[in-house]
From TrEMBL:
GO biological process, one term: amino acid biosynthetic process
Record family assignment: Belongs to the shikimate kinase family.
Binding site for Mg(2+): 16
Protein name as it appears in the record: Shikimate kinase
Sequence positions that bind ATP: 12-17, 117, 151
Places the protein is found: Cytoplasm
Species for this entry: Rubrobacter tropicus
Top class in the EC scheme: transferase
Gene designation per UniProt: aroK
């Protein structure tokens, strides 16, 4: 399996859970970009959005992504759901085996209900519209697409490992 691996997908798709398990199974370090952004800012992600706005969040996210992908130690990087919005992030991901976790929009909407996510608010239609806008960007950077719909994290990771071994 290649050195670094990145995982992308919409909020609630299981990127952190799958990423952590994949890292453990393959002996890699694990980097959760959302957690890293929060650590660097010294406040929660909702706090960053409230105090500094989405643009500042995306700046910190870009820095954290580029640093994670530049590490000598092989790692699995769980990207934030919007990391693909910036062209420089997509360019960086193109040089890294990247997995897109697909999930049914209704499952994602239900899974994130009540979660403290700055971009989760709004109607199901707004949620689905944002997903539709990001979908081609996830597909653009993905070397592998895995359908996570209704499957356990272990089953998803098993498929991810199988797909990555073919790259």
């Amino acid at each position: 399996m290649p050195g670094h691996v990145a995982i992308v997908g919409y909020m609630g798709s299981g990127k952190t859970t799958v990423g952590r398990l994949l890292a453990r199974n393959t002996g890699r370090a694990f980097v959760d970009l959302d957690a890293e952004v929060s650590r660097r800012a010294g406040v929660s992600i909702p706090g960053i959005f409230a105090e500094h706005g989405e643009e500042r969040f995306r700046d910190i996210e870009r820095e954290a992504l580029l640093e994670a992908l530049a590490r000598e130690e092989n790692c699995v990087v769980s990207c934030g759901g919007g990391a693909v919005l910036r062209p420089e992030n997509r360019a960086a991901l193109r040089g890294t085996p990247t997995v897109f976790l697909r999930e049914d929009i209704d499952v994602l909407y239900a899974r994130t209900r009540g979660a403290n996510r700055p971009l989760r608010g709004g109607s199901r239609e707004d949620f689905a519209r944002r997903y539709a806008e990001r979908l081609p960007l996830y597909q653009e950077v993905a070397d592998v697409e895995v359908d996570a719909d209704g499957r356990s994290a272990a089953a998803v990771v098993e498929e991810v490992e199988r797909c990555l071994s073919r790259l």
